[in-house]
Amino acid sequence: KARSLAFGFGHHYCLGAHLALAEAKCVLQAMTERMPDWEIVTPPEWAHSSFVRGVKSMAISFTPGPRKLNV
Fold first, then answer.
1. Where are the alpha helices (DSSP H) in the chain?
2. pTM over 0.85, yes/no
3. Strands 54-57 and 45-47
4. What pLDDT score does 1 carry?
5. Separation between Cα atoms, residue 16 and residue 2, nearest integer Å
6. Is residue 4 within 8 Å of residue 24, measured between CB atoms?
7. Res. 5 pLDDT band, cuts 50 70 90
8. How far apart are CA 46 and CA 63, in angstroms?
9. Which long-range contacts (CB under 8 A, 24 or more apart) does 18-24 make?
10. DSSP assignments along 1-69, one per residue
11. Residues 18-61 pLDDT 10s
12. Dist CA 12 CA 14 (whole Å)
């Protein structure tokens, strides 16, 4: 398993890291279920910063699937 520095390490490890990872897993799972045919339309535009690295924007196309209502 690759070790990410996104949440820090040691004494400086983020207290909310486990919640953030669980939320990201739920979001990505829901997205892939609802948009199984997604594809990248434009290359990602990266955010340039001395302390944050990530995708600023990236256009995708997809056909939306049915919504699941959690009742």
1. 17-34
2. no
3. antiparallel
4. 57
5. 19
6. no
7. low
8. 25
9. none
10. -PPPSTT--GGG--TTHHHHHHHHHHHHHHHHHH-TT-EESSPPEEE--SS--EEEE--EE--------
11. 898 899 999 989 888 888 899 999 999 998 877 777 889 999 99
12. 6
